[in-house]
Every structure is written in C-alpha cells, then in structure tokens.
Amino acid sequence: NAGVTQTPKFQVLKTGQSMTLQCAQDMNHEYMSWYRQDPGMGLRLIHYSVGAGITDQGEVPNGYNVSRSTTEDFPLRLLSAAPSQTSVYFCASSPSGETQYFGPGTRLLVL
Amino acid sequence: AQSVTQLGSHVSVSEGALVLLRCNYSSSVPPYLFWYVQYPNQGLQLLLKYTSAATLVKGINGFEAEFKKSETSFHLTKPSAHMSDAAEYFCAVSAGQAGTAPIFGKGTTLSVSS
Questions:
Q1: Which chain A residue's Cα is nearest to B94?
Q2: What is d(CA A97, CA B94) in angstroms, rounded to the nearest whole number?
Q3: Which residues pair with A5 in a beta bridge?
C-alpha cells in the first residue's frame, strides 16, 4: 500500500494562476479531507468528503474547490491563487471519520 | 461544534523529565479525541485516540493521555522524555459520528535538551 500520496511536493505560483493539488489513497477509505498548515495556526480544515460524490466545507473553504468522483481521488483546486494561500497542504483519508492517515504534504508558494 | 485549545505553543524539557502537553476541548456531543505527532518536514501520524472506551489511553512511544470530562481536558504525558520526542504535537477533536472531519488545535512544539 502506498497509503496517501500527494503531488506535487512543491509548487510556486504567481498571483491569479490556478492549479490543482492531487491527492490519492489506495486504502479504500470513504472519508477524505484537505487541511492547510500555517505557522502558529495549526491545521485548518478546508474541505472534506464522506464518499464519492459528497463534499462539504470546512473552516476555511474560500478560494478552494473540490470534487470527489472516485473513492481514491480527492483533488483540491485553487481557482485564482493569492499570496494568502501560501501554505503547506495536507490531504488525509480515514475509514470512518476517526483516525486520519495523512499524506506527506504539498508546499505552495504564491508570489 | 467542536474546538480545541492547546495551552502553550512551546514546551521545553530535559531528557528524562516528565512531558506534559495540555489540551482542552469543547464539543456539543460526546467527543472523540486524538493526539498526533509531526516530525520535521513530514506529515502527521497518530499517537493515540479516545473513542469513549477507557479514559486512560496508551499510545505509541510511551505516551498516554487521560480523558477528563469534568475538566474537558485530554492532556498528553510521557514519564521520561527522549531526544527523539522533539516534534510538534497536535490535539484534535471530532464529533465521533459519520459526516465530520476532526478539528485540530494550533499545536505545541516540544523541545528536549540533553
């Protein structure tokens, strides 16, 4: 099992550009989530999904879109990148909404 | 709604000393509580979890935590710190029901000196 994989590992964007952060899991978990980690702020929930076709907003959803067409994949889209979206992004999956299994993260720098 | 407060953004201890990392939670329903650890440039991994069974929970690497409903606390302890325990620690709470994702605290950085 590869577990939770995230691509890319590092990305630099210019303000206004769009991009998609990829997340995939091979554990057949129903639950998947996206968090962002910023210094002194901990992890903040962006969006989450309880199964294919079902998504919901977390604490900080503005500027991000998600969709869940398959159990395995949960991409996060930045529609128009802003410097405030500079962060480390973690994807996580869970079989039941309890224990989260985290990916290695994507570091995003928006100039 | 759920929330978590971690008291102390930075805790420093000597090797061999007691480790105590504090976490208080707020939840409108019986909570599930978690402690995760993050080593530099890595993702988070689960240390231990409370899901309404025994109130004293033992985790990996000698850590344990006690759920105290009256104090709404879930503090993390380890009797004797090791240099390898230096990391960032996160407390998290979920509603323990389908359809929710955990909410995390702001984290506590643990430093261990020799």
A1: A98
A2: 8
A3: A24
Cβ(B25)–Cβ(B31) under 8 Å? yes
Q: How far apart are CA B23 and CA B35, in angstroms?
A: 9
Look at the alpha carbons of B90, A63, A34, B41 in this order and tell me if their dihedral is positive or negative.
negative
Q: From the CA of B22, how many Å to the nearest CA of chain A?
A: 15
How many CB atoms neighbour CB B27 within 10 A? 18
The whole-angstrom separation of Cα A48 and Cα A42 is 17
Digit-coded pLDDT (tens) for A32-48: 999 999 988 999 999 99
Determine whether the interchain pair A99/B34 forms a contact, defined as Cβ–Cβ distance below 8 Å.
yes
Distance CA A21, CA A67 (A): 12
User: What distance in Å separates the CA atoms of residue A67 and residue A75, rounded to the nearest whole number?
Assistant: 7
> Which residues of A1-111 form beta strands (DSSP E)?
4-7, 10-13, 19-25, 31-38, 42-51, 54-57, 64-66, 76-78, 87-94, 101-102, 106-110
| Partner-chain residue, chosen from A58, A103, A104, that has the shortest CB–CB distance to B101 | A58
> What would the mean pLDDT of B21-46 be, rounded to a whole number?
90
| DSSP 8-state class, residue B44 | E
| Residues of chain A contacting B23 with CB distance shorter than 8 Å | none
CA angle A11, A66, A84 (to 5 degrees): 45
Beta pairing class for A106-110 and A10-13 = parallel
Q: Tell me what the pLDDT averaged over chain B comes to.
A: 92
